[in-house]
Amino acid sequence: MLDVIPCENELLLRVAGGDEHAFSELFNTHHQLLGTHIYRITGSAELAEEVVQDVFLKIWLSRESLAAVQHFKAYLFVISKNHALNCLRKLAKERLRQKTIEENAMVLIPEESSGLDAYYSLLDEAIDHLPPQQQKVYLLSRHKRLKYDEIASQMGLSRETVKKYLQASTHSITNFVQSNMDMSAVIALAAIILKKS
Q: What is the pTM of this model?
């Protein structure tokens, strides 16, 4: 098919013997044709260049075996095609892995925000369960950022009563959220399991 011409045969023997100048000559003779061949396989100039360099490095590292090669172009095209296909498989796996990571990230974001929504919904529910005076003290403190004295003045209560109401409301809200959060976690877990099955 593609026979080695006599001077190329001599060139291969020189490369096999470790002649770097002969190797440069071999590279200069074949790298452009090989690059075009690999580009047709990969469709990427960058990947083609990388494959050509890898293939010639491989040839240099196993140069002793060149003495036995009868059809160098065919040999060159076969090893470069195999290397190119391996690179494409590796690239495809990497892209698939990246796509999976991105898809998982997109799935997690809504779950996290829905988890936050569930938490805030529970918090609102807990505040709604407070006695009216405690609820008002809590909202003035947490939402309006008023100080004890300001709340006491606005509601006609003592500073100590405001402090007690705030402690009681915080305690009630914490207990309510903790006792109901476990149930929400179970429901969320069940929803995830059902979605996967």
A: 0.47
